[in-house]
Design goal:
Length: 133
């Protein structure tokens, strides 16, 4: 996955886990299609932004998460040229995305992922803050 893909997928997974209700059928169906595409090729994440934009509750949280991650990365790179993101979490992130996106209830599945240390671990890799390992 490219840097922007990692940020988008992570932000989307995190946003899904913060929703209070399951997604409408049409939104869930679109997410399921992306889950199937990611299984074939981990760079097939096109459409996450459009899905978020089509569901205001999700879009609001997703945009906040993207800004938060970019802010954390910016803190890491203050006065330095941006470094590429750490690709270590890519397989773990891809597997989580496939599981969540292919679920019948992606919100519930994302909440389960969020209760594991996965979110903290991947965020640490993305931001380069791996001192707590």
């Amino acid at each position: 996955m490219k840097d922007n893909d990692i940020i988008s997928v992570f932000a989307f997974l995190t946003a899904l886990g913060q929703l209070d209700t399951p997604l409408p059928f049409d939104i869930q169906s679109q997410i399921n299609n992306i889950g199937k595409a990611i299984e074939l090729n981990s760079s097939n994440i096109r459409g996450l932004d459009l899905i978020a934009e089509s569901y205001p509750d999700l879009d609001r949280i997703y945009q906040q998460e993207v800004l938060k991650i970019r802010g954390l990365i910016g803190e890491r790179n203050k006065s330095l040229p941006p470094e590429p993101l750490n690709n270590k979490p890519t397989n773990e992130l891809t597997n989580a995305a496939v599981n969540v996106f292919n679920s019948y209830d992606s919100v519930d599945t994302a909440k389960k992922v969020a209760t594991s240390n996965f979110i903290t671990k991947v965020l640490a890799f993305i931001t380069g803050n791996t001192n707590n390992d």
